Amino acid sequence: MSTEDLMNSVSNVSDDTEFYTPMPDGYIRGRCKYVVIMGTVMSGLGKGIFSSSLAKLMQDKGLKVAPIKLEGYLNVDSGTLNPFRHGEVFVLDDGMECDMDLGTYERMLQKDLSKLNFTTSGQIYTKILSKERHGDYLGKDVQMIPHVTGEVKSRLRELAVQTEADVVFAEIGGTVGDFENMFYIEAMRELAYEEGPNSVCFVALTQVLEPKTLGEQKSKAAQLGIKRLMEMGIQPHIIACRAANPVSDKVRQKIAQYTNVPLERVFSMHDCESIYVIPHMLRDSGYDFEVVKLLKLDQRINLQNERKEWLKWCDFVDRLDKVNHEINIGITGKYTSLRDSYASIIHALENSGTNLSTKVNIHWIDTSIINDDNVADMLKDMHGIIVPGGFGSRGAEGKIACVKYARENALPYLGICFGFQMAVIEYARNVCGIKDACSSEVDPDGKNAVITILPEQKGISGLGGNMRLGGKDVEIAKDSLACKLFNNKTSVRLRFRHRLEVEPSYIKTLTDNGLIFSGKAPGEPIMQILELPDHPYFIGTQAHPCFNSRPLSPSPMFTGLVAAARKLAYPDQKLPTVVQAVQEIAKRSK
Ligand code: GLN
Asked: How far is residue 199's CA from residue 216's CA, in Å, rounded to a whole number?
């Protein structure tokens, strides 16, 4: 159907219409269906977890799914946001710096996403303003409705065309009633109208309160939240009730009655021990088939594929309960009071731990108070440490003290990005004898900057989307620990987000003194992985391997750390070596 036909069919308008709904080339109405997820009552309900779990169940059924997160803020991407306020910045293979929910989607769906899967108000407005300057709306006043909402619909349809999706999952950031996401909600209402019946399924996530003083569940906030959505012209098809405990039938009935949603579509999504059991919860309650029915997808699903994929997932989930060992891993960073700042690292550790039937207890260690005198005490109960990514100088000396301690005391160590750089500085200072070795980021006037700005970064001014970003190939040295971890591959793809590198003029001194650079950028002197011989596990990477870790295929660098830490924690047991542990998982995930 052409744009014109579509416009006529949905609005019967004349030439001087205010109707505006740009249609991407190749878009066929009815080919792609949409599930729209919105949150009411409060933020932080786990919309991304819900949405990605549901998308996973649809993907298992052989359907092509494409998620998109629609953020309300004006930043063009998440790269300039403080992880302490907004959670970690997640980096996609194509270099998009986005919300950490994209990590949840990648882990649940076990696939790489791209910039098509993420947008912000900033991106939408930028597009509109540049079109306006280009004269694309000549003669018209550019307005929130229809131009901004038109652009939002266009983003969803573009995603549908590009990915050939059967179902697009659109998750709207924030909470219904927020000023900044109103236009997204209006766009979804328009989309449902234009696409027609059985094309858009609206899901409202809400919170059922359980005040301690009352000892019972209360539904009023949920009712009011959903009413707010209905005032905006949206009738939800499915309601998911978040709660600490299973939501009682009485409360579900109340919510059903006040929102016109059939009782069988008002679900309890209560707290559970792991996000990876949410697909089970949804499946057990029949959410997946409710969506299939609502969107009339029954002719497109493949139950054989579903059985195969489900078995694999169940095998992973069963392992969540099989805990044979327990280890303590210290994360030594500066955002230690907000778990979300290091979300991918936590997930990567959990993914590796689950696959090795090992419970990983994470300990947050604030490096701004660590020094050579107290480091032994601070790390005394740890079986392994991670120095994570970071920017700026705060806590840098504490991190270097942690690296030194790990190196000298055979404590398993994984350095990520900034942690890789700190390991280079520590080695330069304490092994190569360059006492004032530093990073030009931490000490701009330092004489011996072994970590300096990348040449490609030198001319860049301003911040935002301009670091060395995204997936890049890493050339791995044969027979190195890295090579063994990566299943004897000599080239792997990892994701990056940095401005600095090992200063090439120091590489020879470092390697002459025993440091091994086992991963490099092909054709460039950019060092990407380091390791130490004669240490149970000492490895660092300029990349962020946590962004590639998935439940069924955890990052080998994290698995290596967990396996090494487990050996340290249980010295009397005959446990697999690091390499054996990694190989075992690689075999399983084939
Ligand atoms: N600040 C360092 C750099 O820009 C490390 C970055 C990071 O840890 N992501 O190179």
From this structure: 37
Which residue type is seen at 36?
V
Whether 521 contacts 528, CB under 8 Å? yes
pLDDT at 7 over 90: no
- As beta bridge partners, residue 497 has 469
Q: What percent of the chain has pLDDT over 90?
A: 85
Q: How far is the CA of 36 from the centre of ligand 1 (A)?
A: 36
Q: Tell me, which fold does domain 3-316 have in CATH? A: Rossmann fold (3.40.50)
Which residue's CA lies nearest to atom 9 of ligand 1? 389
**Nearest Cα to 72, choosing from 14, 10, 124?**
124
Dist. CA 552–CA 347, nearest whole Å: 12
Cα–ligand 1 centroid distance for 388 (angstroms): 10
All structural domains of the chain with their residue ranges: 3-316, 322-459+466-589
Neighbours of 269 (CB within 10 A): 25
- Asked if 378 contacts 365 with a C-beta cutoff of 8 angstroms, the reply is yes
CA dist 110 to 117, 279, 292, 411, Å? 15, 14, 21, 32
> Atom 1 of ligand 1 has which residue's CA nearest to it?
391
pLDDT at 12: 46
> How far, CA to CA in Å, does 348 sit from each of 358, 462, 569, 581?
13, 32, 20, 15
Q: What is the pTM of this model?
A: 0.94
Q: How far is the CA of 427 from the centre of ligand 1 (A)?
A: 18
DSSP string across 136-160: TTTTS---IIIIIHHHHHHHHHHHH
For helices 149-163 and 182-195, the axis angle rounded to 10 degrees is 60
Instruction: Compute, in angstroms, the gap from residue 454 CA to the centroid of ligand 1.
Output: 11
Architecture of domain 322-459+466-589 in CATH? 3-Layer(aba) Sandwich (3.40)
Mean pLDDT across the chain: 93
Is 567 a pocket residue for ligand 1 (Cβ < 6 Å)?
Answer: no
Tell me, using a 6 A CB cutoff, whether residue 441 lines ligand 1.
yes
Which numbered atom of ligand 1 lies nearest the CA of 392?
Answer: 1
Do the domains spanning 3-316 and 322-459+466-589 agree at the CATH topology level? yes
Residue nearest to atom 3 of ligand 1 (CA): 498
Task: Considering only CA atoms, give the Rg of the chain.
Answer: 26
Q: Is the CB of 418 under 6 A from ligand 1?
A: yes
Give first-to-last CA distance, the chain, whole Å.
43
Token duo for residue 225: 């939240």
Q: How far is the CA of 359 from the centre of ligand 1 (A)?
A: 29
Query: Ligand 1: which of 441, 450, 453 to mutate, judged by most atoms within 8 Å of the beta carbon?
Result: 441
What's the rounded mean pLDDT across residues 580-586? 94
Assess whether the C-beta atom of 419 lies below 6 angstroms from ligand 1.
no
Separation of CA 543 and ligand 1 centre (Å): 9
pLDDT tens-place string over residues 195-223: 999 999 999 999 999 998 998 999 999 99
